[in-house]
Structures are given as structure tokens and as C-alpha cells.
Specification:
By secondary structure, the chain is an alpha+beta fold. The protein has twelve helices and eight strands. The protein binds flavin-adenine dinucleotide (FAD).
Length: 410
């Protein structure tokens, strides 16, 4: 593993930091900086425009498609500086990190010209229409159908857990286009406009009052014939590209939000007089040690990516990363609750520094759940979305360790 970044990468780091200092709201880097809910709403609207003007949305994309053509190393440094500054780097998560890169790999020239500019400007919002009520881990068993009628696909069925479905302009949807083909073969990946009479979106309300994911019902919904990505009945291969992006994100930056939470827990443990409790100390140290493992493994991954090495170690790291951090974070959130005891239920539970974590944005303003409790609730979902821990273990067992395949249900 190489712990030193090349000199050009360090120069680029200085450039990014200077841009962030010039463009983030005044006081952003000060200890205890906070925005009101109104200020944050305004920031959320203005920031994608600034990112676009700076060229930082999808900056690793090739220049002919509007990116800056950054190298892998520059892309990593960019992500690190944004994470260090706690500045959002995305216009729209699903557009920037999932469907955009999938289109770069599989899309026709016309599809790239039509959809990539809206992603780069942070103007088009996307959602991922994969899971169905009876098709989650076994995604290829999905039943939503698309039938070609002249120049349009006519779509019927239901999706579920569709994050941001109520805000999305477009859905990248998996549908069955050949009911007679073997289940992995008859699927197509279609880009479907969300704002049309044939689509009904219902939010699913969660314990912290947010309804960020939805049920989506398709009743003779329409999509243009040419919106199939990667060819009709080839959707399974295209989907695996998207899922790879979903599981492989943020190798060298992901640890930072956990480090923030660790700091908040230390403050709370001191304030509440439990810092000397041996069991709490041990769990705090376990969390700290795992954050360091995550950080170092991220650097190992970066080194092998830059060196284009496909050694077993890097393959295993890639495959285990998501289950490692999601399981670590669940234990950590249980620890946060134990540090606070019954006070964890109070709306202002936790020191101010909790407000700096992602949990603040996630929670519904005015709803009686503290940011910390909201972070706890969300951590329960982290071993599920993007492939459950059990499925990740199957992948490691079968594809990395070469163990016998899981028996098919009788
Ligand atoms: C916060 C969140 C956001 C999400 N956002 C989206 C989204 O935007 N779009 C979208 O399409 N989906 C989304 N999902 C859905 C997510 O992809 C599915 O929940 C996930 O794939 C699991 O599917 P399932 O819920 O149907 O559970 P199931 O597949 O029914 O699994 C139930 C349990 O059985 C276990 N299991 C299943 N099969 C096996 C096996 N072969 N071996 C061992 N154990 C197994 C699972 O690990 C799990 O513990 C989201 C989920 C969450 C929690």
C-alpha cells in the first residue's frame, strides 16, 4: 500500500480546497457552524448550480460528455476534499453515481446526449426501480412487464422501496420484456419518465417521520421505444453494472462520517460521565479501530486500483467493504444509544456535534426524533439496501472464495 499521494494530486488538493473556501457559505469551516432549516433549504437549491459551474459534478466523466476528464487519483482527491469539508458533492445521487455511469458504459450516443446534460447540471432527478414486493435479493424474479406498442413501451406492475420516487423526473426501471425467456434473460433496463398519468407514487413513512422511499404503481405507463439501455432483454448485464457502482462507492472517504460520529460519542460519553465505564470504553475503541481498518482498506483499494492490480486481496476488500461498514455502523449506533440511555429518546438528545452528521439532513424538521435517533433508525437499513449482508456473504463465498454454490430451493 502506498500512503503517499503523487505531487500533482497534492497540488490538485490545494485547488479544490481553495474553491470550497471561496464557494461554501461564510462560516462553514468554523467550529459549531450551523444553518437554520431555511438557510439549509436555500443552500440545497443553490449548491448544485455552484457545483455545475465549478465542473465538479461527475468530474471524472470524459470531456466529450461534459465531465472534466479527471484521472482516478484526481477523482479520489476531489471526493476526499469534499468529504473533509463536509460539502455535498452530488447534484443527484442516483443520476451522478448510478444511471449516469451506466449510460456512459451502455447507452447509445442519442441516450447520452439526451440524459447526461441534465445529470451534469443537477437538474434531472432519478430513482431506481429495481425491487418489487416479491423480488428483492432475488431481483431476477421481477414481474413488472413492458410490452412494445408501436413506438412506446407499455408498462404494468409495482416497484417498492423506491428512494426519492416522489421527487424523481425519471426512473431507471427493470422490467420483464420476454416472459418466456429464462428469468435472467428476459429483462430490460428502461428509462421511464415519472410524471405521467400511468404512474402513482406513494411514500412509505418511517419511524423518524421521513418518507424518502416509496411504492410506485405502473398502470399502462409509457416510455419511448428507444429508452432501453444496452439492448432489449439485456437488462441483467446492465443492472450488474449499476449495482457494482452502488456497492463500490466512497472507498477512501466513507470512513469520515463515522469518524464524526465517533467524536460526537466521545463528547457525549464525557458529558454523561460514562467515559470511565470499561464496557463503554471497550466498545468506543472497537468502533475507533474499525474506522481505522476502513480507512486503511480504502487506501489499499486505491493503491490496487491505481496500479491496475487484480490481486486476491483487493478483490476480497471490494466484496467485503459494504458488509463491513454497515455492520460496524449498526453496532456503533447501538453504542450511541447506550451512552445516552433513556435520554436518547429526547428530541434534543446528544451534543450539538450530532447536528453536523448526515443524520441532521435525514430527519424531518419539526418531527419528534433527535438527529441521533434518526441515524440509529437509518443504520438498521444499511445492511439491507444495495444488497443485504447475507447476499454479500454469498457473493464472497461463491465468487471470491470459490465455495460450492448455494443449493437452489427445492
Ligand atoms: C433504505 C433503503 C433504500 C432502498 N432503496 C431502493 C431503491 O431506491 N430502489 C430499489 O429498487 N430498491 C431499494 N431498496 C430495496 C433493497 O434493494 C431491498 O430491500 C434488498 O435488495 C433486499 O430485498 P428484500 O427487502 O425484498 O428482502 P429479501 O430479499 O426478501 O430478503 C429477506 C431476508 O432474507 C435474506 N436472504 C434472501 N435471499 C437470501 C439468500 N439467497 N441467501 C441468504 N439470505 C438470503 C436477506 O439477506 C434478508 O435478510 C432499498 C432498501 C432500503 C432498506
Amino acid at each position: 500500500m502506498d500512503l503517499l499521494y503523487p505531487a500533482e494530486a497534492e497540488e490538485f488538493r490545494v485547488e479544490i480546497r481553495a474553491w470550497l473556501e471561496a464557494n461554501l457559505p461564510a462560516g462553514w469551516f468554523d467550529e459549531g457552524f450551523e444553518m437554520t432549516d431555511t438557510e439549509r433549504s436555500a443552500f440545497n437549491v443553490e449548491w448544485p448550480q455552484k457545483l455545475f459551474e465549478g465542473g465538479w459534478i461527475c468530474a471524472t466523466w470524459p470531456t466529450e460528455y461534459g465531465g472534466k476528464g479527471l484521472t482516478t487519483m484526481q477523482g479520489v482527491v476531489l471526493a476526499e476534499e469534499f468529504a473533509k469539508a463536509r460539502a455535498p458533492m452530488r447534484g443527484d445521487f442516483f443520476g451522478d453515481t448510478l444511471v449516469g455511469p451506466t449510460l456512459l458504459q451502455w447507452g447509445t450516443e442519442e441516450q447520452k446526449q439526451e440524459f447526461l446534460p441534465g445529470i451534469l447540471k443537477g437538474q434531472t432527478r432519478w430513482c431506481q426501480g429495481f425491487s418489487e414486493p416479491n423480488s428483492g435479493s432475488d431481483l431476477a424474479s421481477l414481474k413488472t412487464t413492458a410490452v412494445l406498442d408501436g413506438d412506446e413501451w407499455v408498462i404494468n406492475g409495482q416497484k417498492v422501496w423506491t428512494t426519492q420516487g416522489h421527487h424523481a423526473d425519471y426512473c431507471f426501471l427493470l422490467t420483464r420484456t420476454d416472459p418466456d425467456a429464462p428469468k435472467h434473460a428476459g429483462i430490460s433496463y428502461i428509462l421511464v419518465p415519472m410524471r405521467q398519468p400511468g404512474i402513482e407514487v406513494r411514500g412509505i413513512v418511517q419511524p423518524d417521520g421521513t418518507a424518502e422511499f416509496c411504492e410506485v404503481f405502473f398502470t399502462n405507463a409509457k416510455a419511448p421505444k428507444d429508452n432501453v439501455v444496452g439492448g432489449v432483454n439485456n437488462g441483467w448485464k446492465v443492472t450488474n453494472t449499476t449495482l457494482g457502482f452502488e456497492r463500490g462507492q466512497s472507498a477512501t472517504t466513507g470512513w469520515r462520517r463515522f469518524a464524526e460520529e465517533y467524536k460526537a460519542m466521545l463528547v457525549a460519553a464525557r458529558e454523561r460521565g460514562v467515559i470511565d465505564d470499561p464496557a463503554i470504553r471497550q466498545r468506543l475503541m472497537q468502533f475507533y479501530a474499525k474506522i481505522q481498518i476502513l480507512r486503511i482498506n480504502g487506501l489499499r483499494n486505491l493503491t490496487s486500483t491505481v496500479n491496475n492490480s487484480k490481486d486476491m486481496g483487493s478483490v476480497i476488500l471490494g466484496a467485503t467493504n459494504k458488509m463491513f461498514w454497515s455492520e460496524m455502523h449498526q453496532r456503533a449506533m447501538e453504542l450511541a444509544l447506550d451512552i445516552h440511555g433513556a435520554d436518547a429518546l429526547l428530541i434534543d438528545a446528544g451534543p450539538e456535534s450530532w447536528a453536523a452528521t448526515a443524520a441532521r439532513e435525514r430527519r424531518r424538521p419539526g418531527y419528534p426524533t433527535s438527529p441521533m435517533m434518526s441515524a440509529f433508525f437509518f443504520s438498521r437499513s444499511e445492511t439491507i439496501w444495495g444488497g443485504t449482508s447475507q447476499i454479500q456473504r454469498n457473493i464472497v463465498g461463491e465468487r471470491v472464495l470459490g465455495l460450492p454454490k448455494e443449493p437452489k430451493p427445492g
